[in-house]
């Protein structure tokens, strides 16, 4: 029987195997994740996340779901916005990442956040629950991205806002050259030196390359049912924020 | 970026003032400026307003106007009066347009500064001066003409 395949970085793997392999990567990077994030992005991931929060239009009393939330950067910022009357769910498929997130938020004195282990492809919440659903640097790791976007659409309230922050395509030739060199030559080496894990950072670099570009992702969001989607390129398109509205 | 600043200012206004935007719920209003590379959609949903610059969406109301009139509108100019003077074209429900304009007029934002990001400070400043003129002049049409001439010859950074 022919197996359906999908990509794991640049390698084709059986569709049913990808989730486990991605889990292996994040099990491996969990305890050094925040440090590596700061080092590899020169701290820029904080700015990209700040921008995401600023454009979220989330307000006091809102319910927010952060998918693939990992160590909880977005969840923490959302918790400040929704206040005591709101609710934030920090979720991730990976127990090790979620547990880092939980530790992080407790250490930072953040309350009012629930922690749920879940896959973005099958979200265990009722239809029309959240005012905002976010996924930062997570969608490229999900096996069935369309299914994940449909699920995010389903659990959003009418008028709710989807935020997808993800690496994307830059159309500035020089930047593209530098970025290519950096992600394939520097990133895995830094991964080796700092986290003793070259393979995981090689996968992360490759998965960025396999992720759909801005227009393709926009179409996927609209195809999932969102009445509106627009994207904002950040750092010359290295990262893009797609904002969908369930109208 | 400009849309986001406007969006944040509008929603800050909504969060800090007892303003009922229920009558606008579900409405999408499109503004396009005839003489400025700016299109903006105001999407009122889930008790908040999203501002986007995507030109491709279907809207309920389309408002076309000159940038100077746009600024004048923000600064409190009467919509009905502008309509009467043919300075603004509205396709769709005028009542919805009026409700949104009422809101925009309450936003405390330096629109001149905001527009400057689009085509360069000098142009925006000209438009801003022009808007102020419209407000104070006895002969708004005359001052618009003067202003437009100024505006057209002002250098742009594009
Ligand atoms: C690069 S991390 C991003 C973490 C965090 N959002 C951030 O921006 O720092 C990617 C996360 O996606 C999670 N993930 C991968 N596949 C997933 C899936 N199908 N559903 C939910 N989370 C998933 C991983 O466990 C990992 O924590």
TrEMBL record, chain B:
Q: Which Gene3D superfamilies match?
A: SCP2 sterol-binding domain
A Gene Ontology annotation in the biological process aspect, one of them, is: ubiquinone biosynthetic process
The SCP2 domain extends over 19-105
What Pfam families is this protein classified in? SCP2
What is this protein identified as? SCP2 sterol-binding domain-containing protein
- This protein's species is Candidatus Thiodubiliella endoseptemdiera
């Amino acid at each position: 029987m022919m197996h359906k395949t999908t990509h794991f970085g640049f390698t084709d793997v059986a569709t049913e195997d990808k989730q486990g392999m991605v889990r292996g990567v994040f099990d491996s990077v969990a305890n050094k994740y925040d440090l590596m994030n700061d080092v590899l992005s020169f701290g820029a991931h904080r700015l990209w996340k700040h921008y995401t929060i600023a454009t979220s239009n989330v307000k006091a009393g809102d319910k927010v779901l952060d998918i693939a939330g990992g160590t909880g950067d977005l969840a923490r910022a959302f918790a400040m916005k929704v206040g005591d009357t709101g609710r934030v769910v920090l979720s991730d498929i990976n127990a090790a990442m979620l547990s880092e997130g939980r530790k992080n938020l407790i250490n930072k004195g953040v309350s009012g956040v629930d922690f749920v282990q879940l896959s973005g492809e099958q979200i265990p919440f009722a239809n029309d629950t959240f005012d905002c659903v976010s996924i930062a640097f997570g969608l490229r790791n999900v096996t069935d991205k369309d299914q994940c976007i449909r699920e995010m659409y389903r659990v959003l309230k009418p008028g709710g806002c989807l935020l997808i922050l993800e690496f994307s395509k830059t159309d500035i030739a020089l930047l593209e050259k530098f970025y290519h060199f950096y992600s394939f030559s520097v990133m895995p080496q830094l991964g080796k030196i700092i986290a003793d894990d070259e393979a995981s950072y090689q996968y992360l670099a490759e998965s960025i390359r396999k992720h759909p570009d801005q227009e393709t992702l926009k179409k996927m969001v609209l195809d999932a049912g969102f009445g509106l989607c627009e994207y904002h390129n950040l750092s010359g398109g290295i990262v893009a924020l797609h904002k969908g509205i369930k109208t | 970026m400009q849309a986001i600043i406007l969006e944040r200012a509008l929603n800050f206004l909504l969060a800090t003032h007892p303003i009922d935007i229920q009558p606008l719920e579900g409405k999408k209003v499109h503004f396009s400026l005839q003489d400025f590379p700016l299109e903006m959609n105001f999407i009122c949903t889930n008790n908040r307003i999203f501002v986007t610059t995507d030109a491709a969406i279907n809207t309920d109301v389309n408002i076309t106007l000159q940038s100077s009139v746009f600024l004048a509108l923000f600064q409190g100019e009467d919509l009905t009066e502008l309509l009467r003077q043919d300075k603004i074209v509205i396709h769709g429900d005028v009542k919805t347009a009026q409700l949104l304009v009422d809101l925009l007029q309450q936003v405390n934002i330096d629109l001149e500064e905001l527009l400057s990001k689009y085509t360069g400070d000098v142009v925006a400043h000209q438009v801003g001066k022009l808007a102020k003129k419209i407000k104070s002049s006895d002969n708004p049409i005359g001052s618009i003409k003067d202003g437009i001439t100024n505006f057209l010859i002002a250098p742009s950074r594009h």
